[in-house]
């Protein structure tokens, strides 16, 4: 009996290791080793109103998507006659460097990327009037250890997206507010294929404006926990003290950054966040 119990205990103790060994290793291209940046990058000469594009990933990373998005955002900014600086170095979040930018685009950033001093610098810059555009994965972590980022900057916590085998589905977006420069040129009903994000709540307060929602009757919310009901927000704006914040859950696949309407959305979001167009905050 004792021998049998001992064997059973050893089996139970070994089970987690056996399960872990059975799982395929994470692809380092999608799960890079986390690195905290301490030395800021050297900035080139920048004209007033420059845009910072940060694509730091200490969590999930899609290399093709980030490369395509960074290229597209840079083109969009330069076509508007402004300077853009793209970096993977989060140490750019310091008072000296941030004052050279009117807008920060967080391009599918993920994981814990800022140390305490960088968090404080970014927060002060936003609250004093900086503009932030968060794209796709920048609001797509399942948990954040910086409460201000999820609760105040974004206004909602990501809870999941459509999963395999139905990860990418065609669905229809209802553009509810077309007064913002980002949504002005979008159709009222915009049908496209995407990995559809869901959140724990509909953002509210702090001057929030829901610009676009997902019509859940046009696709299959899977898994079921990704269903939000009548109001499923995808694109919204918020005011964080004097700062303007724009969030869009769109843009998982690299090719979406070649879509004319998606590029218009991003360009308008940057113009709004930088106070070149539109009202609020």
What report would you give on this structure?
This protein is α/β, with parallel strands linked by helices and 281 residues long. It has a domain at 45-159 and 198-212 and 233-273: Rossmann fold, CATH 3.40.50.880. It is 27% helix and 23% strand. Helix 4 links the parallel strand 3 (101-107) and strand 4 (131-135). The longest helix has 21 residues, at 2-22. The radius of gyration is 21 Å and the shape is globular.
Set down the secondary structure blueprint.
Elements: H1 2-22, E1 50-54, H2 63-79, E2 84-87, H3 95-98, E3 101-107, H4 116-127, E4 131-135, H5 147-154, E5 158-161, E6 168-175, E7 189-195, E8 197-199, E9 209-215, E10 233-240, E11 243-248, H6 260-273
Parallel strand pairs: 1-2, 1-3, 3-4, 4-11
Antiparallel strand pairs: 5-8, 6-7, 6-9, 9-10, 10-11
Q: What does this entry show, briefly?
A:
The chain is an alpha/beta fold and 281 residues long.
């Amino acid at each position: 009996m004792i021998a049998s119990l001992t064997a059973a205990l050893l089996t139970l103790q070994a089970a987690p290791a056996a399960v872990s060994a059975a799982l395929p290793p994470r692809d380092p291209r999608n799960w890079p080793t986390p690195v905290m940046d301490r030395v800021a990058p050297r900035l080139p000469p920048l004209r007033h109103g420059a845009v910072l594009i940060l694509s730091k990933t200490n969590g999930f990373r899609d290399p093709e998507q980030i490369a395509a998005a960074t290229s597209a955002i840079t083109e969009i900014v330069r076509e508007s006659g402004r300077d853009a600086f793209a970096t993977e170095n989060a140490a750019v979040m310091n008072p000296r460097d941030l004052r050279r930018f009117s807008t920060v685009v967080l391009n599918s950033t993920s994981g814990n990327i800022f140390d305490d001093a960088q968090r404080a610098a970014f927060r002060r810059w936003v609250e004093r009037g900086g503009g932030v555009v968060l794209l796709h994965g920048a609001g797509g972590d399942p948990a954040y250890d910086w409460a201000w980022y999820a609760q105040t900057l974004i206004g909602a916590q990501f809870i999941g997206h459509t999963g395999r085998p139905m990860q990418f589905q065609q669905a229809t977006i209802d553009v509810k507010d077309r007064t913002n420069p980002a949504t002005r040129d979008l159709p009222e009903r915009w049908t496209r294929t995407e990995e559809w994000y869901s959140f724990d709540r509909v953002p509210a307060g702090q001057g929030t404006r829901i610009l676009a929602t997902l019509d859940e009757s046009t696709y299959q919310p899977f898994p079921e926990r990704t269903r939000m009901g009548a109001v499923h927000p995808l694109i919204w704006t918020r005011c964080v003290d004097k700062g303007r914040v724009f969030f869009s859950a769109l843009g998982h696949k690299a090719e979406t950054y070649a879509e004319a309407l998606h590029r218009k959305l991003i360009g308008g979001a940057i113009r709004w966040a930088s106070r070149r167009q539109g009202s609020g905050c």
